[in-house]
């Protein structure tokens, strides 16, 4: 016998819709290290995520199940990619910029990434690899940085803001199977070739709920979370799944001093109420 209760798939698009409507005035704050931090509301993140999804689907031809990679620091554009790529049915692949070049090339080829979204400041790390990345058809560049190293690349180069400009700010997010692949990352190649791990919509949704529980992080819509863990490392321990409160991103590369500055800029006070740490180096 089955229940008569409402049954809907646990999808990342539902997290995005909830955050951008119920908590639309909350902010993602990116500290660049210069002047005032960049602030975008959750509502703006939702709208720009929809624009990115339209651009990926309509202009770059990304279809369900295809991999779109990010090679980025912690910032609001990376958060937009976190939501847009899996919510549209593609698979987010965060590339660990700390890995050796040969491992990065192996990972991109193994995942068959078609698109790479990269911060302009990281072009010097990505450009030398492109000749070894035959599956990459599009490079989307966000933020300041010299584009010259990308000249002559086999992949088409796009400016992020130009790519999403004029796109609709809403998207008909598909009803996916909650067990469908949403994101993937790879280990370092300490025991042979790197190993890939694929996260489902369901697993990310449940993890996002878990971190907000009282006996976990106990986060509310009044809290500011400073994400120091890189977004390219295990999805920042799923920190990108926040649905409420403020999300502060530390400047590249994250350090204790820069993170402290970012925290003060985000919430107007020094010091953190709690420091939550995890991983094998703790």
The SSE order reads HEEHEHEHEHEEHEEHEHEH
CATH uppermost class: Alpha Beta
Computed over alpha carbons, the radius of gyration is 18 Å
Q: How is the CATH topology named?
A: Rossmann fold
- The coarse silhouette is globular
Q: What is the helix tally?
A: 9
In helices, the fraction of residues equals 25-40%
The main β sheet shows up as: 7 strands, mixed
Oligomer: single chain
- The end-to-end distance, rounded to whole angstroms, is 47 Å
**Name of the CATH superfamily:** ANL, N-terminal domain
Could you tell me the number of beta strands? 11
Q: Mean pLDDT score, rounded? A: 87
If strands are numbered along the chain, what order do they take across the biggest sheet? Answer: 7-6-5-3-4-8-9
Q: How much strand content do the residues show?
A: 15-25%
Query: Based on the structure given, which CATH architecture is correct?
Result: 3-Layer(aba) Sandwich
Topology at a glance:
Blueprint: H1 12-21, E1 27-30, E2 38-41, H2 42-59, E3 67-71, H3 76-87, E4 91-94, H4 101-111, E5 115-119, H5 123-126, E6 138-142, E7 156-159, H6 160-164, E8 181-186, E9 196-200, H7 201-211, E10 224-227, H8 234-238, E11 246-249, H9 256-267
Parallel strand pairs: 1-11, 3-4, 3-5, 4-8, 5-6, 6-7, 10-11
Antiparallel strand pairs: 1-2, 8-9
Helix pairs in contact: 1-2, 2-3
């Amino acid at each position: 016998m089955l229940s008569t209760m409402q049954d809907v798939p646990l999808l990342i698009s539902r997290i995005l819709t909830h955050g951008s409507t119920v908590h639309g005035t909350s902010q993602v704050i990116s500290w660049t290290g210069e002047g005032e931090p960049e602030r975008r509301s959750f509502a703006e993140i939702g709208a720009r995520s929809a624009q990115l999804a339209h651009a990926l689907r309509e202009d770059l031809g990304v279809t369900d199940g295809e991999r779109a990679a990010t090679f980025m620091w912690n910032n609001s554009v990376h958060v937009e990619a976190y939501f847009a790529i899996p919510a549209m049915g593609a698979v987010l692949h965060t590339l660990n910029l700390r890995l050796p070049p040969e491992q990065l090339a192996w990972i991109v080829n193994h995942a068959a990434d078609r698109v790479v979204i990269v911060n302009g400041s990281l072009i010097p790390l990505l450009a030398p690899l492109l000749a070894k990345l035959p599956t990459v058809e599009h490079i989307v560049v966000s933020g300041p940085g010299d584009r010259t190293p990308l000249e002559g690349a086999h992949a088409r180069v796009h400016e992020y803001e130009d790519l999403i400009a004029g796109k609709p700010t809403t998207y008909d997010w598909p009803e996916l199977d909650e067990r469908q692949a949403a994101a993937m990352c790879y280990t370092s190649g300490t025991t042979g070739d790197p190993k890939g791990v694929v996260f489902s919509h369901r697993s990310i949704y449940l993890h996002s709920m878990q971190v907000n529980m009282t006996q976990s992080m106990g986060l509310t819509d009044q809290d500011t979370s400073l994400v120091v863990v890189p977004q390219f490392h295990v999805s920042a321990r799923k920190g990108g799944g926040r649905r409420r409160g403020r999300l502060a991103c530390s400047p590249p590369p994250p350090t204790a001093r820069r993170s402290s500055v970012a925290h003060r800029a985000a919430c107007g006070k020094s010091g953190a109420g709690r420091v939550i740490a995890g991983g094998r180096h703790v």
